[in-house]
Structure formats: C-alpha cells, structure tokens
Write a structure and sequence with these properties.
Distance between the termini: 115 Å
Largest sheet: 6 strands, mixed
Number of strands: 13
Structural class: alpha/beta
Number of helices: 14
Radius of gyration: 37 Å
CATH class of the largest domain: Mainly Alpha
Number of domains: 3
Helix content: 55-70%
C-alpha cells in the first residue's frame, strides 16, 4: 500500500470521527444552556438532565474506545465476526436511546408544566436540538461501523435517494398528526419491560406510564420468567441482549407456554439488520423496535399490539357467546331442543354400530304447569322452569345429557341399564317432590311425570321419542307424579 492510500484512509477516518464528535460535543453545549435556563424557573428536572449528560459521556467514551480498537495499527477487521459488529452497534446505540428518550420526556413535561414564555420556547427548542444531534450521532455510528466492516462505497448515493423519496412521500401526505391516544379498553394494561439497562427501563416505563399503561420491569431473563409466572402481562417489551438468558431464548420459553394472541412480545434491540428482525418474528415476536427508540413509534407499536390482543379476546368472547346462544336454552341454561335431539340422533347411530352401550331416554313434563302460570304469572312459571331444569342438570351428569324441548317438557339421555334406571327414577321423583321454588314471597311446590323408552326398542330416534311420549301420557293418566318405564311398569305410585 502506497503512502497516498494510507493518507487517504487517515483523512477518511478523521472525517468519520469528526462527524461523530461534533454533534456529540454539541449535546453538552445545549445541555449547559438548558440547565441554566431551567435553574431560573426552579424546575425539578435535574434527574433527567443528569441522565442525558451521563449517557452522552458514556457514548463518547465507548466510541473513543471502539475507534481506537477497530482502527488502530494492531486492528484486524478480518478477524472480527458479524456478531461482534452487531454488538458494537448495539452498545453505541444504547446511550442514544436514553438521550432521546429523556429529551422527549422533558419536552412533554415542560410543554405541560411551564406557561408560555420566551424561556419556555428556548428550553424546548434546545431540547429538540439535543434530540436532533443524537440522531446525527446515530448516523455517524452507522457510517463508522459500516467502514470498519469494509462496506462498499456508494451507500451515500443510495441513502440520499431514500431520503429524497421519503421526503417527497411525506410532502404528498401533508400534515400528519403524531398524537396517539389510548382507548379506555386498553388503559391500565400491564406491560413487562425486560432490559438489563436500568436507564432504558426507566425511559420506557415513564413514557408508557404517561399514556395510561402500567409497567413492570425485569433486568434479566430469570426475573422476567418469574414475573410472567406471577401474572401474565398484556404485553412484553423484550431486549435481545440480556446478561443471563438472551432475548431470543427467552422468547422461545414464553412461546412454549403462551401463544402470540395471549402474550404479544415486541423485541427491542440495536440489531436492526434484516436477519435479526426476521429471526425474532420467526420465533414468535409480534413486532420489533430498533434502538434508539422513537417515542411515537414505541407508543404506536405498543398500542397496536394491545389493540390486536383486545380484539382477538373480544372475538373469542363473541364466538363463545354465539355458541352458547346456538346451543343453550336461553331461559334455563341447559341444552336446547336442537342440541338434545342431535345428541339423541348421534346416540342412536352409535348404538347401531355398537360403538357405545345401550341407553334410555326420559321425556319429562311438569305437572299442572298451566296452573302455575295462571296463579303466579309467567314470571313465576319461568322460575319454576329454571329451578326444575337446574335440578335435572345437577342429577344428570356426563356422559348423560338433558335438554329442554319445549314449554314445560324436557328430554334426558341416560346411558344406563333397566335396574340402574329404576333406582335413578325413584330417587329423582323424591328430589322433585322435596324441591321448593321460591318466587317473591311465595314457595311453590311441583311434581313431574315422565315416560321412558330404551334404545333396544327402536333404531329410530323419532320412534323412541314417540314411545316415551305415550308412556308420559300414561303416567299423567295414572295420576301424575310418576314415571312409566314400560307399558306394564309404573314408578312413583
């Protein structure tokens, strides 16, 4: 390598460093101005300003170390892995996240708390300058990392083209409203922030809390797992780099117990290459946030993920409600006519195939129900129907089933032999007689009659129901409050 190429490389490195140092140092200048202006107004913002100052110091020190390490005479970029360059980018971007985050928080605080004045305008404008300068340092970091990785020239033209395209697009869209509001349904949503950097956690927590969200923090993977075990959050903001369990492994563990619908996860990292993002999405992340985090984008993605989760949950509720409405008798809460007759058809088919043991059906009818309605009105009659249905439902357990088939009539399917059924029927009659329905200030006592048919009497469901109906009629003609099992056998006399 000739001297001219060496000199050219040195000049380029000097320019690369200068492009970083200039905006980074300017942040300190604006911070000094802001601190002096804030002191005159006696505002409580020292913590945020100190965080910005500390983060800027950290950024400059880390950049200086990296610059010397990767561009010194002893450096050998060919020995560096892709992961090392990604980690370098991540470490340099992390302090930027704090600078931008605290800067945006201070602007919002000052806009809300400080009356309109020249000093207020100066402070807010200077904070905006600090954020802009942080964005400049971010670009300088990208140029530096691309250079030491040996990226080909020509990216400047591509970047310029992209910028011009984006500017034209936004100009065509006109003014955009960046305000993002949280719906009442999403307020107090539980957000778990997982990041080993406490400053990052604090920035994220403050920004989300200001929007009405509740936040928890975990600084390592094990703590995050414990937090989720205690209570499943509505959403997790998960950093890729953690001291014990990396974010991708942690994501796998979350997904082993929770699907994306029940636990959305947004990955957060300075690794903004396509491969890293794709890996996160493949492992079950719902979205991805690059560092430094833009406050507006953060809220937009968090709220969007929460809205999707809420809509899915609401959809499930509606589907469940529709299912209940389609399969349940609205008054009594037990199976409706369609469901119980479909179950009967299925039982007959299975009995034909010998897939299940024989069964019996009972058609019930509440005795003198018309008198109940005439005496207590339909409200009283409804209470009797609900009480009777509940009694049957309690006594008839799976795989047996009971449903209301109309008015005061009910049908039960019982997988039982004749002897067991006799015992069941006698016990049921006794419980019905003891049952007291409370309505307003009155106690109503009822009885019921039933007709029984056995599956071996017919291979047709309609025929079985007709046989049970005829025996029900016989039970009523015999004095009610009894069940007829077969034509010659009456229980309850």
């Amino acid at each position: 390598m000739d001297n001219s190429s060496v000199d050219a490389k040195g000049i380029l490195l000097t320019q690369i460093k200068q492009d970083f140092v200039t905006p980074a140092n300017a942040i300190f200048d604006y911070l000094d101005i802001v601190e002096k202006a804030v002191s005159k107004l006696d505002l409580q913002s020292d913590d945020e300003l100190n965080q910005i100052k500390s983060s800027c110091n950290k950024l400059i020190n880390q950049y200086e170390e990296a610059f010397n390490l990767y561009t010194g005479a002893s450096s050998d970029k060919n020995k560096k892995s892709s992961e090392e360059y990604s980690e370098l980018r991540h470490n340099l971007r992390t302090p930027l996240n704090a600078i931008i985050g605290y800067g945006e928080i201070l602007i919002e605080d000052f806009e809300e708390d400080i009356p309109e004045s020249r000093t207020r305008r100066i402070i807010i404008n200077d904070l905006k300058h600090i954020i802009d300068l942080a964005r400049e340092t971010e670009k300088a970091i990208e140029v530096f990392v691309d250079f030491i990785r040996g990226e080909e020239d020509g990216s400047d033209e591509a970047d310029k083209s992209q910028v011009e395209t984006a500017q034209a697009l936004f100009k065509s869209l006109g003014d955009i409203d960046h305000s993002i509001s949280l719906s009442d349904d999403l307020k107090d949503s539980d957000i778990l922030i997982v990041d080993d950097n406490k400053t990052n956690c604090e920035v994220l927590e403050r920004r989300l809390s200001m929007s009405g969200l509740k936040c928890r923090t975990a600084y390592d993977g094990e703590t995050a797992l414990d937090e989720v075990k205690k209570k499943t959050p509505d959403l997790i903001l998960l950093d890729v780099i953690l001291p014990d369990i990396n974010g991708l492994e942690l994501l796998k563990r979350f997904r082993s117990k929770h699907n994306v619908e029940s636990l959305p996860v947004i990955m957060v990292s300075a690794f903004d290459d396509v491969d890293s993002i794709a890996k996160c999405i493949q492992l079950g992340a719902q979205d991805y946030l690059p560092k430094p985090i833009n406050g507006t984008v953060l809220l937009a993605k968090v709220i969007s993920s929460l809205e999707r989760k809420f809509l899915r949950e609401r959809e499930k509720e509606l589907v469940n409600e529709l299912h209940i409405q389609a399969t349940t008798d609205q008054l009594t809460g037990i199976a409706n006519r369609r469901v119980i007759f479909n179950t009967l058809e299925d039982a007959v088919s299975r009995e034909k195939r010998k897939d299940f043991k024989s069964f019996a059906i009972i058609v019930f009818d509440i005795d003198f129900f018309k008198n109940v309605n005439d005496t207590y009105g339909h409200a009283g009659g409804d209470e009797v129907l609900k009480s009777f249905a509940q009694l049957l439902d309690n006594e008839i357990s799976q795989p047996n089933q009971v449903g209301r088939i109309g008015g005061e009539e009910f049908l039960a399917i019982l997988y039982s032999d004749s002897d067991s059924l006799n015992k069941f029927a006698n016990n049921l009659i006794e419980k019905i007689n003891k049952n007291i329905v409370k309505f307003e200030d009155t106690e109503i006592k009822i009885t019921a009659s039933g007709g029984v048919a056995f599956s071996d009497e017919s291979e047709n469901s309609s025929d079985l129901v007709n046989k049970a109906d005829k025996r029900l009629y016989k039970a009523k003609k015999s004095g009610r409050n009894r069940f007829v099992l077969v034509d010659s056998e009456i229980l309850g006399e």
